[in-house]
Amino acid sequence: FIDNIFRFVQAGSEVSTLLGRMPSAVGYQPTLATDMGTLQERIASTSSGSVTSVQAVYVPADDLTDPAPATTFTHLDATTVLSRKIAEQGIYPAVDPLESTSRILEADIVGEEHYQVARSVQETLQKYNELQDIIAILGMDELSDEDKKIVLRARRMQRFLSQPFHVAEKFSGVPGRYVPREETIRGFREIVDGKMDDYPEAAFFNVGGIDEVREKAEKLKEE
């Protein structure tokens, strides 16, 4: 576990400055890519064992194109990007599903259904992002019926991506949930297919599987 690898980059930048080297983009050392590659290549699997590395990466000014995080990401199999905007909505874990990546999200690795559902969710959320400016200026009424469906489903997806933590139970009062991967895929499949369009958005927030959404919706009706 590396916490956090940006400190390694900073240390290299300071050493480079002391050595009088000409800085590269944004003031980083000219050997940034080489230094990062040398470190990352030491984390390698062999015939006698394997190493899994989890690395915390500080992103300066939330700019994912900054040379430090961008150089780091090229060596990682998967990235989980935390978003301030999502956290501001009260959605935890505040993971950005569009910025986060995984090299194993391929049909021949995770299965055809998992792959298709994941891509459909990403496509819906991306379209919702593209409609944000129109909604902010003209409002929902100016959208086509198809775009309205996309917005409503995307908002349900965002809330369904929230999850009650076991470690946060004593603070939130909501018991933690563990949801199997198959159950998660089934839940998002039903949202993508429009089977959950009639359920209120509040029912998708901080629940486990899709069946719990239905149960919560019934309780909300009673209230």
From TrEMBL:
Main location: membrane
Keyword list, A-Z: ATP synthesis, ATP-binding, Cell membrane, CF(1), Ion transport, Membrane, Nucleotide-binding, Translocase, Transport
Residues in ATP synthase A/B type C-terminal domain copies: 108-186
The keyword Transmembrane helix is annotated on this UniProt entry: no
Gene Ontology cellular component list: proton-transporting ATP synthase complex
Signal peptide: none
Domain ATPase F1/V1/A1 complex alpha/beta subunit nucleotide-binding positions: 1-102
Keyword Nucleotide-binding found: yes
Stored PROSITE patterns: ATPASE_ALPHA_BETA (PS00152)
Subcellular location as annotated: Membrane
Source organism, top-level taxon: Bacteria
Matching Pfam families: ATP-synt_ab, ATP-synt_VA_C
GO molecular function terms attached to this record: ATP binding; proton-transporting ATP synthase activity, rotational mechanism
Entries under InterPro entries matching the protein: ATP-synt_VA_C, ATPase_a/bsu_AS, ATPase_alpha/beta_chains, ATPase_F1/V1/A1_a/bsu_nucl-bd, ATPase_F1/V1_b/a_C, P-loop_NTPase
Similarity-based family: Belongs to the ATPase alpha/beta chains family.
Protein name: F0F1 ATP synthase subunit beta
Organism from which the protein derives: Candidatus Alectryocaccomicrobium excrementavium
Lineage of the organism: Bacteria, Bacillati, Bacillota, Clostridia, Candidatus Alectryocaccomicrobium
